[in-house]
Amino acid sequence: MDTALRKRRFLCAALIPTMLVYSLFVIVPIIWSIYYGFFNWKGIGDATFIGMANYIEVLQDSIFWLSLKNNLIIVGASVFFQVPIALVLALLLTRTTWFQKFVRTSVFMPMVLSSLLSG
Hints:
The protein is mainly α. The protein has helices at about 5-35, 55-60, 60-95, 100-119, and strands at about 40, 50.
């Protein structure tokens, strides 16, 4: 059998369980949530189809828009502050300096000590 074909089969075989678990715990609940958004249902009893009423109610709610604004602020702060700081730290850690040794020690020492102390 060709080596490239063997690698491709291995990758597909390795990805299938991952995709099944991902679909089961992420994709399926998203689809069910969208589906149940079209119904008036309290979790027990009969579900009544109400169309887009739930979605219209959410879009008219001021708390939804405030929450969306707050989330966008958090995402923006993350992009504009965390990413540049992480890049600078990554650049500093790739060079052999006292800073690299200090950071590696301060990051890995608690991990090593906790595993040693726990037995």
